[in-house]
C-alpha cells in the first residue's frame, strides 16, 4: 500500500477530530488505530470526559451508517438486534432490523444493560452477523462498536462478561486535560452545544475507502521474530503468579492487527518491538484479571505487564 497517501489520510482525520476534541491526542490516535484495524473499542472514564463526543466525532469523519444505542437496565435483546413483526397485509412475519445493523455503532453506558442484552452483541462483534429466528443476516462492512462506561458509579450496572471484553480490541481510558487544555476547552466551547461542535467537522473517508484500506493493512506481514515475541508475552501472562486470568490467543491476534496499523501510521510497512510495547496496555489489560490478594496489595496489571516484558529478550 502507499504509506505516504495513508499518512496524509490519517493526518486529515486527526485534524478533523481535533476540531472537536481538545487534547486526548493519544486516545484519538488509538481510536483511529482501532478503526483501521477493524476492531471494537471500549472507552472508560469518569463522567464529563467527552467519551460520547469522541465516539460521535469518529463516526462523523467516516461516511458510513451510524447508530446510537443507550443501554439501560430494562433494554431487551430485541431492542438491539431487531425483531420479527407480523405483516397483516402479507399474512407473514417480517424482520425489522434494530440499531445494531448500522456500521459505526455507539453504545452509551454499555454496563447498564443486563447479561441477556449483552449477549446479543457477541455474534455481531465477532462474526459480523446476526441470527434471528434461524435466519442469519450479514452486517455491512466496515462494522465497529464503540462503547462507553463509567467506572465510578456502579449502582445499577453489570460487569461485562469476560467473553465480551475479549471482543474489544482496545480499552481506552481518557485522562483529565492539562490546565492549558482545559482553558482551551472553556474558551472554545463554553457557549456551544455538542451538536454545533460536531457540525464543525465533516466526512473524510467513505465506507468503501475505509474497507479497502483495512484490507491493505491486514496484508502487511509481521516477521516471525516479532510473532514469537508476542507469543512469549501472551504465554507469560497465563503463567505469571500475580495473574488469575491471562490473555487469550485472540488477544495475540488483535495485538498483531493493531501493530500493523500503528506501524503504518508511523510510516513503516513493518512492525517493530516498540509498536508491541506501546499497544500492550490498551490491548491486554481489560482481558486479564489480577489475583485478588495482589490487587489488595496495590499491584496493577500495567506493572505486571512491564515485569513480563522486561524478562523477555527483544528481537533484533
TrEMBL record:
ChlI/MoxR AAA lid domain mapped to chain residues: 236-307
Family matches, as InterPro entries: ATPase_AAA-3 (IPR011703), CbbQ/NirQ/NorQ/GpvN (IPR050764), ChlI/MoxR_AAA_lid (IPR041628), P-loop_NTPase (IPR027417)
Highest taxon of the lineage: Bacteria
Keywords of the record: ATP-binding, Nucleotide-binding
Domain ATPase AAA-3: 40-170
Molecular function terms, GO-annotated: ATP binding; ATP hydrolysis activity
Sequence similarity: Belongs to the MoxR family.
Protein name: MoxR family ATPase
Species this chain originates from: Caldithrix abyssi
Amino acid at each position: 500500500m502507499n504509506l505516504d497517501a495513508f499518512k496524509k489520510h490519517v493526518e486529515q482525520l486527526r485534524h478533523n477530530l481535533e476540531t472537536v476534541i481538545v487534547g486526548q491526542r493519544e486516545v484519538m490516535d488509538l481510536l483511529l488505530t482501532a478503526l483501521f484495524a477493524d476492531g471494537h473499542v471500549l472507552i472508560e472514564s469518569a463522567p464529563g470526559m467527552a467519551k460520547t463526543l469522541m465516539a460521535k466525532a469518529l463516526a462523523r469523519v467516516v461516511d458510513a451508517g451510524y447508530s446510537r444505542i443507550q443501554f439501560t437496565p430494562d433494554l431487551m435483546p430485541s431492542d438491539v438486534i431487531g425483531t420479527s413483526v407480523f405483516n397483516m397485509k402479507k399474512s407473514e412475519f417480517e424482520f425489522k432490523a434494530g440499531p445494531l445493523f448500522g456500521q459505526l455503532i455507539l453504545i452509551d453506558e454499555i454496563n447498564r444493560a443486563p447479561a441477556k442484552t449483552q449477549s446479543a452483541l457477541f455474534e455481531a462483534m465477532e462474526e459480523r452477523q446476526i441470527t434471528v429466528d434461524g435466519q442469519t443476516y450479514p452486517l455491512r462492512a466496515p462494522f465497529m462498536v464503540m462503547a462507553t462506561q463509567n467506572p465510578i458509579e456502579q449502582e445499577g450496572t453489570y460487569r461485562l462478561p469476560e467473553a465480551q471484553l475479549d471482543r474489544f480490541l482496545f480499552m481506552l481510558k481518557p485522562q483529565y486535560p492539562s490546565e492549558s487544555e482545559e482553558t482551551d476547552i472553556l474558551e472554545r466551547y463554553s457557549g456551544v452545544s455538542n451538536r454545533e461542535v460536531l457540525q464543525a467537522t465533516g466526512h473524510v473517508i467513505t465506507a468503501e475507502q475505509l474497507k479497502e484500506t483495512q484490507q491493505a493493512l491486514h496484508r502487511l506481514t509481521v516477521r516471525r521474530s516479532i510473532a514469537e515475541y508476542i507469543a512469549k508475552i501472551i504465554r507469560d501472562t497465563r503463567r505469571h503468579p500475580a495473574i488469575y486470568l491471562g490473555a487469550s490467543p485472540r488477544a495475540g491476534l488483535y495485538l498483531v492487527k493493531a501493530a500493523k496499523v500503528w506501524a503504518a501510521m508511523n510510516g513503516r510497512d513493518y512492525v517493530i518491538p516498540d509498536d508491541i510495547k506501546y499497544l500492550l496496555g490498551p490491548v491486554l489489560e481489560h482481558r486479564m484479571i489480577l489475583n485478588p490478594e495482589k490487587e489488595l496489595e496495590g499491584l496493577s496489571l500495567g506493572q505486571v505487564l512491564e515485569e513480563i516484558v522486561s524478562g523477555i529478550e527483544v528481537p533484533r
